[in-house]
Amino acid sequence: MPRPEAPLAARMRPRTLEEYVGQEHILAPGRLLRRAIEADQLSSIILHGPPGTGKTTLARVIAGSTRARFTALNAVLAGVKDIRAAIADARALRDSHGRRTILFVDEVHRFNKAQQDALLPWVENGTVVLIGATTENPYFEVNKALVSRSRVFQLKPLTDDHLRRILDAALHDPERGYGTRRVELAAEAVDHLVSVANGDARAVLGALELAVETTPPDADGVIRIDLAVAEESIQRRAVLYDKEGDAHFDTISAFIKAVRGSDPDAALYWLARMVYAGEDPRFIFRRLLILASEDVGLADPAAIGVVESCAAAFDRIGMPEGRFHLAQATLYLATTAKSNSTMAFFDALAAVAAERAEEVPNHLKDGNRDKEGFGHGEGYQYPHAFRDHWVAQDYLPPALRGRVFYQPSDQGWEGEVGPRVARRREAQLAAMVEDGGLVPAERLTAGPTDPRLERWVQRTASQVGERLAALRDRIFAAADVQRHHRVLDVEAGTGLLTWEALRRAPEGGVVAWTTDPRQGRTLQGLAERLPELTRPTVLVAAIDALETSVDPIRFERILGRDAILRSGDPGALLAILHRLLARDGRLVLCEGLPRRTQRLHGLLDPGAVPAELGRAWAAAEEAVYADPADPLLRWDARSLQAAVEGAGFGLVQVEEIETKYALHVSAGVLDRWLADRPDSWLGRLRRHLAEPESRAVERAVRTLEGRRIPWNATALLVVAERCSADR
Chain-wide mean pLDDT for the chain? Predict the structure, then answer.
């Protein structure tokens, strides 16, 4: 328990994960970090985030829940001697009692190289489990070896809702907060404190404490905090901006990208962020001067002059009026035409680095010194002596003849000169040819030496595997899975989506659900090869047990392939998935469309069956795929979209994906097609053919064994979301 005289922010520091507010993307039920803390199996981690987001608090929550010894160092105050002492204690505890030590290092980026090197071996061999906290990007500021041996978790600024919950807890907690005092906080005062705190829990609690402690009770004994008091308690929004840290580089990056992207509103906003935080205006002008050539360039050759004039005016005027010149230069660059054709210089630079140093062509050499002796400069044609002050001649070394570096854009001034440049190049190339020069042809394609070999490889490769990989890639492109997402793979099958989800969401969590016990055993066997904390959860359960089996987890992404239409009750399954999807979550399904699949009657060679049988076969097969009573065949894009929307999903999009590939007709494929079951292909066909006809069709289909046949398939890619308003 903190001392009563401790600041409110220290007194209200959460003690358990249940009291911890915010950071649901890493600490919600089912997340990797929460599972590791609850199982007391924490490995080394680095917590990265702005001040007031709960890094130190989370470390202390871990300290209160672990059976390991917990010790803390501050990187600003601790030296190599302190690190060695902590390591010595950890080794003694491990050797005598077999107990782990968790070492918390606050401001870990402040460690110098000697301090980090002193710590590294003991993190590597497991003597200590490191928890590092830093406000700076660990990939830039922390020893790379330490980062590579740790999981990095990024903490985000708290939302307004988080800060309101923290204020409410402080006002009502009788032991650590103001629960024993009569404090009334006006709604507009709450809004101001939350807004100006800018996601910082420490700032909002500090402002509340100042307001309460400096406001006397009224005649009724009530401490009333109105908007005026709140404004005095926290008057200026704290903008995170360290001129040597992430915020500095991230903000200037956002500014440059907004100007490059021709968004004047965003450009002004990021400019204001930098000026508000005290950034050096000359640094901003330096970036604008670079941008005027890099991103505007010859689309508007006047741009660099405008920016240079604004910078010179700023040097004469200074602040605060100089902000007008910053704004003018920013707006000019953000609204003018853009071209990055000056990047061509770096192509030329790469050619110089890669090519053997070429001698300057004789006609381009200086003829003032040795024209008589060596003939330098002979053959040079003076452009001003020709019409339009230009003549077609070669200016590149022989080995680089025909090489193109500069490609004019079609924007602004450069768009006007582009055709002229192209015409002159064409004339130069013609002159080279007439002069006996070799013009290398541009390579428009790349491939193997023998195209026949490539075609053979394509025919013999497993195109079914390629098709599934392509479908998987389409699903994940639409899903946009982030590292912290919790993902549900619906009817996971062999795990085509499960393993990719695990790679893309290592800090979230993946649940692979199937109703097939055999597939579940296969998935479980594969999953057991992975470390316990990183493996997916394999769930074998009936549809009606799915929701209770995963509760209370809600998933940011739900993925599935051929899961809904084959479920027997698509509406019921979709309703369950809607309840399992987190707010602002996304559902991505890829459903095969059986009614649009390849027809077998068109695959046989002409004359393989009598014409009358061929017509009967074709009619029967079309009747099979048009059967409205078959639950697999009544679906199309419109009905599937209606079913998804009927389950409560919003922003539903359905896209048809048509694929063509070569299918190898193996004995196994034939056995599935021709199985003596009512639901097989042949079983369905028999409903529309006489017995002699069906036997003849079976014999004809069996002639396909061992062949590769062209196969067309259609799938529906469904993308839907659960909107924020859903509950």
Answer: 82
